[in-house]
Design brief:
142 residues, 5-stranded mixed β-sheet, alpha+beta, two-stranded antiparallel ribbon
Length: 142
């Protein structure tokens, strides 16, 4: 059974490994490591903005989110490719939605690199809509 909980520093290496496994496939397409591969996960854990989905002590994925004014910003959702297809990404997003409601946030906002086409294709199926496109850190985002 999978549980979602706030990450602790004992999860740090598993989170780093999960990010590496989840995002390595994008390096060639983007031309550099995507932001989630180089994030300061120790600081995110310390700030309480990183949660993991785990089973029997093994991290299978994680999510990073935090409050911004009247919305919750969803920074990152990653699932170890070995556990894709189990609905873990959807469970993580549902978790963020519950946190937004309980925190009184009016919406959840996020962006993704435009070259991550699987994310773009999946977005409407989970109720996301595109608000705008912009360039961030020299990468096209929406």
């Amino acid at each position: 059974m999978h549980i979602i909980r706030k990450a602790t520093h004992t999860d740090l290496e598993q989170v780093r490994t999960c990010a590496l496994e989840a995002y390595t496939r994008y390096v060639e397409r983007i031309g550099k490591k995507p932001a989630p591969m180089v994030a300061d996960f120790a600081a995110l854990i310390e700030a309480g903005t990183l949660s993991v989905i785990e089973c029997e002590g093994q991290v299978h994925g994680f999510v990073v989110f935090y409050g911004c004014n009247d919305y919750l910003h969803l920074e990152n959702v990653a699932v170890d490719p070995r556990f894709k297809g189990l609905g873990l990404g959807r469970k993580l997003i549902d978790y963020v939605e519950r946190q937004a409601r309980s925190g009184g946030y009016g919406s959840i906002q996020l962006y993704t690199n435009a070259t991550m086409t699987a994310n773009l294709a999946r977005s409407p199926t989970i109720g996301l809509c595109q608000l705008e496109r912009r360039v961030h850190d020299r990468s096209p985002r929406w």
